Amino acid sequence: MAGRHFNYRLHPLSLAELENIFPPHEALETLLTCGGFPEPFLNGTDGFAKRWRRTHIDRILKEDILEIEQIRQFKSLELLVDLLSERVGCPISYSSLARDLEVSPNTIKRWIEILEAFYVIFVVPPFSKNLARSILKEPKIFFYDNGKVRNDEASKLENLVALSLLKDINLREDIKGEKGQLFYLRDKEKREVDFLVTRENKIHSLVEVKLSDNSFSKNLFYFEERLKPKQCFQIVKNLKLPQSTPKIKMQGVVEFLLGLEILNN
Questions:
Q1: Residue 43, domain member (yes or no)
Q2: Among positive and negative, which fits the CA dihedral 23, 232, 158, 144?
């Protein structure tokens, strides 16, 4: 029976899916605060979303994970989820988390792998032309439930964009067979761009995410010049006026996210 069926990955709701149902800017705010799982999104209130989230994460940790994995320090695993939710968008140090939780770095790495396997989080590694080196560097952690991210608008926005990019990458692979990966960029001088997307092992796009900055990122220019991506975006939530250079496009977050899941680009 091998090869007689196809698997499709089901992600939380995206802005593109909601375009014809809710006003886009209203839907964006709800996705940022309540997340894209249907129940909290459709209810639309922060109180309900918090109650739903507590039950949801409890069931995953206490029922699903413990049924399969033998984890003695369960409270530490719960605390790890909380610590990760406060560090979204930042490179994660296994050693630092290990010290905080008084366990070994290998234990932290194993727990993160478990949380990723149960779709609580996903890991975005740093990009390197030598992909083996990327595995050794500090990754960033993002949540499938955007509402789980700490109460910080910039972190919530970056998480939502990461989730939307991952959904688009998975959708292209599931429907078109097009292999893609999501990375972030950072060099030794700490120049950084939020996201780099590859398609078929080639650099396709760079994406820098901002809340209100209406001036182009110098780091984006720097990496665009060296990596020559097919597309280069700076997306801004509170954008006053769209701008563009010959190689970089600045546009609103809503416009960018609405265009992500168009499979003919």
A1: yes
A2: positive
